[in-house]
Amino acid sequence: MLNPLIADAYRILDGETLTREAAHKLAAGVGPEDILDLASLANKVRAKYAGRIRPCSILNAKSGVCSQDCRFCAQSARHHTHIDTYPLLGREEVLKAAGEVAESGVAFFGYVTSGRGYTDPEEPEFRAILETLDALHEAYPELNLCVSIGILSEATAKALADHHVRRYNMNLQVAPQRYAELIATTHTIDEKIATIRFLQQYGVAICCGGIIGLGETMADRVEMALAMRELGVDGAPLNVLIPIPGTPLERQPLISAAEVAISFAMIRLINPAIMLKFAAGRETMMKDFMGLLMLSGLNSLMTGGYLTTRGRTVAEDEAFLQQLELFG
Ligand code: SF4
Q1: Ligand 1 binding site (Cβ under 6 Å of any ligand atom)
Q2: Best mutation site among 114, 116, 118, 191 for ligand 1, i.e. most ligand atoms within 8 A of its Cβ?
């Protein structure tokens, strides 16, 4: 028999919004036996409001040596990880990577740098980034560029908008009220939210996701999804924590695929129309459950590898997506 809480949530398909109270009640009231029913509803909501699968690929344009202390991240200079570090890539290297993405048919290209961010529009590294973004726009006007370079001021947000940036990634990572405890102490969630607001003021769409498996509760994930809705974000990359040796989370217990499925479905039910993207942890942590999880309300995936970990190739994911398109 269908869990009555799930039956009630079918009203989302009639255009109703899941209230905060109903979302918490639903998340607390579904068990492992309800997973396929909940995923099925999330997938119907995805099909009705968010559409087919659109992959995305990212380039880490500056790696490691970061001053910040994000507990999950291999790029923090405060953790003892063994990753490749390099300074800001030059324009030619970025253009080459973007060209390969464009040629592979992937529609979204993410330009990502490690570090706290940029608040001075005259800083030489920020000026170099603007020049690269101009060159990217000129060479590949069709490519949906998404920039992720950290915390901004109003002035740097405006400069990005003036240099053709129409989409920006700034992840909440967790429920805002738990950011300092679970993510970082060197910057605040308020600085991230202010960055989102500055960019929105200049017409930039926001891609704003999170990580599942940091030690947060299901209620925290519901709060994160509600915060995304309140911020009016356009898309959200969803990561499953990869506990990287040398980071404070290296011994974090692994989360079950069942819990990830419920989390993804809840995030979709709270945010019916946004682009929900399966990012890190898809291949490495969720392995055989990748297909089930894509069916839990997602309509995008990150392909071709992540910031500091490998993923599947675009060709492998293309074959996978051809199967997914059976229900897209
Ligand atoms: S997530 Fe970004 S800001 Fe945080 S440590 Fe990693 S690179 Fe630095």
Answers
A1: 66, 68, 70, 73, 75-76, 114-116, 150
A2: 114
Run of H or E including 242: none
Q: How far is CA 54 from CA 125, 296, 306, in A?
A: 31, 16, 17
For ligand 1, atom 7, which residue shows the shortest CA distance?
Answer: 114
Q: Which of 200, 205, 266, 264 is nearest to 238 (CA)?
A: 264
Q: Are 281 and 242 in contact (CB under 8 A)?
A: yes
Closest approach atom of ligand 1 to CA 116: 3
Class of domain 34-322: alpha beta
Alpha helices in the chain (DSSP H): 4-9, 20-29, 35-45, 91-104, 124-139, 154-162, 179-182, 189-201, 218-231, 257-270, 290-294, 314-324
Which residues fall within 8 angstroms of residue 231, CB to CB, at 6 or more apart? 193, 196, 206, 208
Q: In the predicted model, is pLDDT for residue 42 greater than 70?
A: yes
- CB of 226 within 8 A of CB of 20? yes
Q: What is the C-alpha to C-alpha distance for residues 132 and 112, in angstroms, rounded to an integer?
A: 12
Summarised one tens digit per residue, pLDDT across range 112-158 is 999 999 999 999 999 999 999 999 999 998 888 999 999 999 999 99
